[in-house]
Amino acid sequence: xxxxxxxxxxxxxxxxxxxxxxxxxxxxxxxxxxxxxxxxxxxxxxxxxxxxxxxxxxxxxxxxxxxxxxxxxxxxxxxxxxxxxxxxxxxxxxxxxxxxxxxxxxxxx
Amino acid sequence: xxxxxxxxxxxxxxxxxxxxxxxxxxxxxxxxxxxxxxxxxxxxxxxxxxxxxxxxxxxxxxxxxxxxxxxxxxxxxxxxxxxxxxxxxxxxxxxxxxxxxxxxxxxxxxxxxxxxxxxxxxxxxxxxxxxxxxxxxxxxxxxxxxxxxxxxxxxxxxxxxxxxxxxxxxxx
Lengths: 109, 172
Prior knowledge:
The complex is a heterodimer. Chain A is an all-alpha fold.
């Protein structure tokens, strides 16, 4: 079965590299700019999705499905990370009554 | 040619909504923009002929993970007033640093591309359930099984961490 893809329509693979890099940059920007710990976790999800987008783009470009399997494994790890991270945050909120990461400084000497 | 225009429009929308995740002042709005971003990324997957990944992306990310985030936000009762503020100097430094990172990533990958050049229109239907299932249950069956152990440990860890400490002391 032959399906038409965006690469047949003249979109280059460099476009997807650029889009994924910019999305990753936005994720890094969020981690640096926000102090709410939940939004930090969300920006990590955004960075993982940038990697997923690039994996799928190259998978279609080379016509091999292996990269799409790796996308599933990235989703598995992201789900596990989100559950554990959020439960740690709920525990921290219960103790400190805040999710501001600049106040999580009990280990500071 | 219209497919290319659609791709560029979708890329622009993805970029815009991802930027709004970072810039939205209210945390709940941030979550909603992230869900929108995941839908746009799923649109990109469909244009790339990865239909199954697109559907799973919506179900897992927009349906499960982001709802979990939303629940925790509601549970902690965060509002715009007690949203922590960042200093303007730190904001400027963050914009410069992440912008430079994105530029370096693009520049580094731009010249070192494509060893095996040329895109073939041969067989592009592996993004469907049949091809992916075939691969997942033969070549990648061991990582697939190990990921279930990862899920189990994450589940046990989450239950253990989120349990109220008062109840533990009462039982003891």
